[in-house]
Design goal:
Blueprint lengths: L1 H23 L16 H6 L8 E13 L3 E9 L15 E8 L12 E16 L2 E15 L2 H5 L5 E3 L3 E3 L3
Length: about 170
């Protein structure tokens, strides 16, 4: 009787704990459209004409902001996104791209090093340089963008780890 009760509790605890962990991760912030493609900035840079007018959801780390008379351009090093569409900046980058935003963007609000996720449409490419190396930048007309705060980057990362036992760690 005792082992049967323990077996029932364990069988119920596993799905409950998995649902609890899934609930910790924030939902994606942008919903893909029927025109959204899962492609990296590097791949678009190699075949920009193939991806013209494709919708993308990209993120990365801001390199800098360049304001022009009618628009602002934000240079970004692209990174893969997690299930909540937060940039995973600890790994290798996906290449650089330029986010084109209408009007004036205050560089103070989009500082170098900040993490950003955006939804937009591939609007072409432009040759440029990174240091002294030639580079092709995909251009993305931004529809929506989100700058990530440190608290948002850490939310949804439970301080619970499973191994031979269950422990709680402080980050």
């Amino acid at each position: 009787m005792r082992t049967r009760l323990a077996h029932i509790l364990i069988r119920g605890a596993l799905p409950a704990s998995l649902m609890l962990l899934a609930a910790c991760a924030p939902a994606p912030i942008y919903k893909p459209t029927t025109n959204t493609v899962a492609i990296t900035p590097d791949a678009v840079a190699h075949e920009p004409e193939h991806y013209a007018n494709a919708d993308v959801i990209w993120g990365g780390r801001i390199v800098g902001v360049h304001n022009l008379p009618d628009r602002s351009e934000i240079e970004i090093v692209g990174y893969p996104l997690d299930s909540s569409q937060r940039p995973k900046a600890e790994g290798g980058g996906w290449g650089r791209f330029i986010a084109v935003m209408p009007g004036f963007v205050e560089p103070y609000n989009y500082p170098s090093g900040a993490l950003i996720t955006l939804a937009g449409r591939v609007s072409g490419s432009r040759a440029g340089e990174v240091g002294e190396a030639s580079y092709v930048y995909p251009l993305v007309g931004v529809v929506q963008s989100h700058l990530w705060t440190p608290a948002e980057m850490h939310s949804g990362h439970p301080n619970i780890s499973f191994g031979l036992g269950v422990g709680v760690g402080i980050h």
